Amino acid sequence: MNASIKNFVAWPIALICAALAAQAIYSAISGGWDLIYGRAWILCAAVVVALLSSPLADSREMPQSRLRYVPVWLLWLFDVLLVGIFVLGTIRFIDIQILLEETMFDFAEVDIWIGLAAVIVLLEATRRLFGMPIVIIALLGLLYCLFGQYLPGFLNHSGFTLSRSIETIWYSLQGVYGMPMGVVLQVVLIFIVFGVLLEGTGASDALIRASVALTGRTRGGPAHSAVVASAVFGSMSGSVTANVVGTGSFTIPMIKRRGFSPAMAGGVEAAASTGGQIVPPVMGAAAFLMSDLTGLPYTTICIAALVPALFYYGSLFVSIAVQAGADGIEPLPESERPPLNRKDLLACLMFIIPIAVIVFVLLMDRSPAQAGFWAIVAAVFAGAFSKRNRENPRVIWEALVKAGRSCAWIIIAVGCIGVILGVLSLTGLGISFASTVAEFSEVSLLAALVTTALAALVLGMGMPTLPAYLIIILVLGPVMQRMGAELLATHMFVFYFGVLSAITPPVAIGAFAAAPIANAHPFSTAVMAVRLALVGFIIPFIIVYEPSLLIVGTFELTNFLRVTICLGLAIWFINTALIGFERQHLSMAERVIRAGVGAGLLIQIPSIQFTLIAVALIVITYGKFRARRKLAG
C-alpha cells in the first residue's frame, strides 16, 4: 500500500521539484520574486517535497520500528496534516507581513500557535532529511528563549515569552525568512540547478574518461583520476554526497582493481569529492555567497581560493603516489590506458563550455545569478553534442526534477538555520558567546581559531556546507576579526572547516557515502579520508597567519614564496612520515624526523622555517643517495 501511495504522489512531487528548479532559473533572469511571497511559498514548496518524498510510512518498514503496527494510511494522513499545517502557517505569515506594512498589528494567541506549529513541521522536515543533530540545536534554541533567564553567566538573558519568540522566529525577517534564506534563493539555487543539469547531460562521464586518460601514466592512476574528476565535478555540484556517488561509482572499483585497499579507495573518493567545494570558479556556489557576505568581487574570491585549493589537491596527489609506491603499485600499462579520441574531446565540451561561460559573464561584471543562468543555457547547448541527449530530451526534465529536490534540501536546511539565527537575534546569545570566546582567546589568536574550527566541524556534520558556513561566520567571524584575522582569511578559514566536516568522524557523511561503494567499513574510510586530507585541516590556519597565500589583500612576494616553499616541503615530509615510504620503506626514526621537520615547517616563524628548509633539503638528498646506492648494490 505504501508503494502505491508513493507512486500516486510521485508526479505532484516531481512537478513541484521542477517548479522549484524553474523558479531558480527565472529568478536569475528577473532578479527574484517579491520578498515576502517568494521566500514564503518557496520554503513551503520545499517542505512539501521533503515530507511527501520522505514519508513517515517509510520508517515503518525499518527493523524494530515503533511504527510498524500503525496503518500505512494513517501515517500518510499524518504527513498530509503536517503539509496542511505548514501551508496554513505560510498563508498566515504572508497576511501578517502585509498587515504590518499597512498598520500596527497585535498578534492573537491563535497566530502564535500557528507559527509554533509551522516551526515544528519545518524541524520535522529537517529531521527526515538531515537527522537529529541540527534539529536538537534548534529545539534547544527555542527552550533557551523561554527559560534562558534561569541560566548562569553569558547564557543568561531577560527572558522571552512564547509569543515574543515566535514573532521573531516565524513572523519576522530575522528568523526563518531572514537574510540567509534570501541569499540562498537569489544566488545559490541557480548553481545547484546548474550542477545537477551538468551531471544529467552526461558531462560527468566525459570528465571521468578525460581524467583517467590524463593520469594513466602516474602510479596512482585511477586514484589520481578520481582526484581530478572530483575536483572539477565537485566544484559545480555543491553536494559532497552527489559527488561521491556520481564519480565514485566509476572510480572506486578502478582504484581497488589497481591494488589499493577498499578503505583507501573510499577515502580517496571522499577526500577528493569533499575538496571539490574549495576549487574555483564555482566552489559549489560558495564563491558567490562569500562574495555577497564580504562585499568583495567574485573574481577576488576565486583568486584567493586558487592557491590553497592547489595545495589541497597537490597533497592528495602526493599522498596517493607515496601510498602506491609503498604498496608496490606501478603505473597503468599503455595498453590499458583509454585514449582520448575526437568523440571524447567533443564530450569534454559539455563541462568546459559552461565553466568558461561562468568566468566570462562574471568578468563582464554581471551578477552571479546571471552567470548561473547563462551557464545553464551553455550546458543545455553543449549537451546537444551528445547523441544520447538528442535522442532522449527527457534528460532535461529528469535533471530539473532532481535539481528541484536538491534545492529543497538546501532551502529546508537554511530555514532550520533561520530558527537558530532568530534565537541568536532575539536573545543576543551570538554577541555574548562571541564576547566570551574573545575573552577566552584574548591572549591567543590560535585559541580562537581552534574554537572556531571545532564549532564549524561540529555544526557542519550531517548538513550541507553552505548553511554550516553561514551560521559559523555570522556568529564567530566577528571574533576572529577582532583578534586580528583579515576579513577574507576569516571567511576562508570557516568555509574550509565547514567543507571538511563532511569527512570528519563520527558523522563523516562523505566517507559514509563512499564506504558502501568500496565495500569498506565507514569509520575506516573516514579515518583514511582524514589522513589523506590532513593538509586541508592545516591550510586554513596558515591562511590566517600568512594571508599572502590568498594573493589578494595583504600580499608580500617574499612571504608568499616562503609560505609556498615551506608548505610544499611540509606536504611531502608529512605524507612520507605517515605512510613510511620514500623510494623505499623508512625506519621509525626516519619517520619521526620527517614528521618533526614537516610540522616545524608549518610554524610561521621565518627563522625556524629557513633552518628547517635546509634540514629538509639535506634529508631529501640523503634519501636519493641511499636509494641510488641500494640500486647499485
Can you characterise this structure?
The chain is built from 28 helices and 2 strands. With 633 residues, the chain is mainly α. It has 3 domains: 2-174, no CATH class; 181-404, no CATH class; 557-633. The chain has a two-stranded antiparallel ribbon. A hairpin with a 1-residue loop joins strand 1 (581-582) and strand 2. Helix 11 packs antiparallel against helix 12. The longest helix is centred in the middle third of the chain and has 34 residues, at 394-427. The mean pLDDT is 82.
Treating each run of at least 4 consecutive H or I residues as one helix, how many helices? 28
Give the N-terminus to C-terminus distance in angstroms.
74 Å
Mean pLDDT: 82
Share of helical residues: over 70%
Q: Assembly state here?
A: single chain
Strand content: under 5%
Break the fold down into its secondary structure elements and pairings.
Blueprint (H helix, E strand, L loop, with lengths): L1 H29 L4 H19 L2 H5 L11 H31 L6 H22 L2 H15 L14 H8 L9 H22 L2 H13 L6 H16 L2 H18 L4 H14 L10 H9 L3 H29 L15 H22 L4 H16 L3 H5 L2 H34 L1 H12 L4 H16 L4 H18 L4 H14 L8 H10 L3 H11 L1 H12 L11 H23 L1 E2 L1 E2 L2 H14 L4 H27 L1
Antiparallel strand pairs: 1-2
Helix pairs in contact: 1-2, 1-8, 1-16, 1-18, 2-4, 2-18, 4-5, 5-6, 5-7, 5-18, 6-18, 8-13, 8-16, 8-18, 9-10, 9-15, 10-11, 10-12, 10-14, 11-12, 11-23, 12-14, 12-23, 12-24, 13-14, 14-25, 14-26, 15-16, 18-21, 19-21, 20-21, 20-22, 21-22, 22-25, 23-24, 26-27, 26-28, 27-28
